[in-house]
Specification:
Radius of gyration: 26 Å
Keywords: Cell inner membrane, Cell membrane, Membrane, Transmembrane, Transmembrane helix, Transport
Structural class: mainly alpha
Order of helices and strands: HHHHHHHHHHHHHHHHHHHHHHHHHHHH
Family: Belongs to the binding-protein-dependent transport system permease family.
InterPro entries: MetI-like (IPR000515), MetI-like_sf (IPR035906)
Number of strands: 0
Helix content: over 70%
Protein name: Iron ABC transporter permease
Strand content: under 5%
Pfam family, one: BPD_transp_1
Number of helices: 28
Distance between the termini: 58 Å
Oligomer: single chain
Length: about 575
């Protein structure tokens, strides 16, 4: 019996249970804890209840008063319910608009001989590297009361401003132009999957181009289109950076209300209810997106030619190329506006800055060097933790068919950053695990939030490695763990490196987690930019924003080179 138990407990078993323990402590317990708080209206110290009889008695007393009062207040009080409805309206509108905006670009990439596809592919990644609160500030520089777009508008005879940027419309526009790449590449793939010969057959039977597009092309691509729409809904619903900058006081949005209830009023009940609602909505639409991808399959005819004729009609290609350029130009102008602001002596009276200086960059390197170092150290800590955990999760899922780890490691995909932050604050705010206000909890939060990117990269590398290579090492006398580390590990280096860069990039620009959890001594660059914007130090904030964008662009370029990713 003892011998059999000893054989079952090896290095891999210990590692697997340590990973389970990590997710249990820092993901499952916080989410369960915030659920309990939403029913009790008071903070619950789950860990303290296991080590202190007094804490356990308090916890049991709180649990004895479980009710749905906090949830009923969601529908009785106008503020919370309005925030939920407004958020649903915002996300639905953004999802629909992004789909409409992206469809022509995706079709151009997949089905036409549009020139400069590599250039357009590179430009379409730029919106992804800009933190959303920075893109919101960029739109303020463009469309605010003293924005350069409105200067041009007034010079052409217009009165006032084109529109109020600090409004629902402003939030929608920022999210549309900076979130569209999330939908673009899945749609490109959807158009490429369907068989072009079906369209040719339709045209040979006398159908016109538009009729063929609507009755043949679109139905074949519809699963990918719907999946992209649901993904954009989830991304928009969870976005914190744009609403916190652009939402006016009379516009309630659930992600902003949850932050205010926690950071402003320490209202545990209100923040917990809003957190649970956000989780449920995000989980539902994530599940719906997965259902669309798995539940729909459109077959195409076999025996298709190896090379398919792309649409080379000059009129179609010219219109789609111009349209794609105009869509991509908007976020580029936003980044350009931030860059001009970082160089400006003063800016506001005219369309362009009154003068130019590099002093703002000197300022951030002299006074904000600690924020820069904090970002690098925190991102480095999250990277190391992500590499270790994600690599072994990939191994257990691919080689050992661990469905449990696969499921648990996917949960962060449905957890909005603000929800995770509130859950971690509630859980680790008291002894025996009082981690709130420490760099360690911030690193752990970054790791949990961004680990799915790492797991996706390492899992694809693991699948490409043949199992017999590992078996050969075991047959030569190596243990399974030693074989995995010394044989499989080196072969996974490209995937690990690409995933590590992606984790580093996303942590550098993370906003919601940093805003809630970062202690003063460990404030990263993203938090420093946000605080500078609130203090009105716009030029210094712009300089640091450009530094963040530059770091992210360089690292994403390295990630692309490592994975040899072809986006077109």
């Amino acid at each position: 019996m003892m011998k059999r138990l000893g054989q079952s407990i090896n290095g891999f078993t210990v590692l697997k249970w340590l990973i389970y323990l990590f997710f249990f402590l820092f993901l499952l317990v916080p989410l369960f804890s915030i659920l309990l708080v939403s029913f009790t209206g008071q903070p619950i110290n789950i860990f303290g209840s296991f080590v202190s009889q007094k804490t356990l008695a308090k916890t049991m007393e709180k649990l004895s008063h479980i009710s749905l009062d906090a949830y009923s207040s969601l529908f009785q009080g106008k503020g919370y319910f309005d925030a939920l409805i407004n958020s649903l309206k915002l996300s639905t509108g953004v999802a629909l608009l992004v789909t409409i905006v992206v469809l022509p670009i995706a079709y151009a990439f997949a089905r036409t001989k549009m020139p400069w596809k590599p250039l357009f592919a590179a430009l379409c990644t730029i919106p992804l590297v800009v933190p959303t609160f920075i893109s919101s500030y960029a739109f303020m520089l463009m469309f605010g009361k003293t924005g350069w777009v409105n200067h041009i508008y007034q010079a052409l005879g217009g009165q006032g401003v084109l529109f109020d940027i600090q409004s629902m419309l402003g939030i929608v526009l920022v999210q549309v132009f900076y979130f569209f790449p999330y939908a673009l590449w899945p749609m490109v793939a959807a158009f490429k999957i369907s068989d072009l010969t079906l369209e040719e057959a339709s045209q040979n039977l006398g159908a016109h181009g538009w009729y063929t597009f609507l009755r043949v092309t679109m139905p074949l691509a519809m699963p990918g289109i719907v999946s992209s729409m649901l993904l954009i809904f989830t991304v928009s619903f969870s976005d914190f950076g744009t609403p916190i900058i652009l939402a006016p006081k009379d516009l309630n949005l659930i992600v902003v209300e949850a932050y205010r209830e926690m950071a402003g009023f320490f209202n545990w009940a209100g923040s917990a209810v809003l957190t649970v609602i956000m989780l449920l909505v995000a989980a539902f639409f994530f599940w719906l997106q997965r259902l669309v991808v798995k539940g729909k399959e459109y077959g195409t005819i076999s025996g298709k030619p190896t090379r398919q004729k792309l649409n080379d009609h000059k009129g179609v290609v010219s219109v789609l190329t111009t349209y794609s350029f105009l869509v991509v130009l908007v976020p580029l102008l936003g980044v350009g506006s931030i860059f001009l602001s970082s160089l400006a002596t003063t800016w506001g009276r005219h369309a362009l800055p009154d003068g130019y200086t590099l002093s703002h960059y000197l300022t951030i390197f002299s006074t904000s060097h600690k924020n820069i170092m904090n970002s690098l150290l925190l991102a480095g800590g999250a990277l190391i933790l992500s590499v270790i955990i994600a690599t072994f999760v990939s191994y257990f899922v691919v080689r050992r068919n661990s469905a449990g780890l696969d499921f648990v490691s996917s949960i962060p995909l449905i957890v909005p950053g603000i929800s995770l932050g509130i859950a971690l604050i509630q859980t680790f705010n008291t002894a025996p695990l009082k981690l709130t206000g420490t760099a360690l909890l911030l690193i752990i939060a970054y790791t949990i939030r961004r680990m799915p990117y790492m797991i996706r990269s390492t899992m694809s590398s693991m699948m490409a490695i043949r199992k017999d290579i590992e078996e050969a090492a075991v047959n030569l006398g190596a243990s399974n763990l030693f074989a995995a580390i010394t044989v499989i590990g080196p072969l996974m280096v490209p995937g690990i490196a690409a995933g590590a860069i992606l984790v580093f990039v996303t942590v550098i620009k993370e906003t919601s987690i940093s805003l809630l959890l970062a202690p003063t001594d460990w404030a990263p660059m993203s938090l420093a930019v946000f605080q500078n914007l609130l203090r009105g130090e716009y030029y210094t904030a712009s300089a640091m924003a450009i530094l963040i964008v530059a770091i992210v662009v360089v690292l994403q370029y390295l990630a692309k080179k490592l994975t040899k990713d072809q986006l077109y």
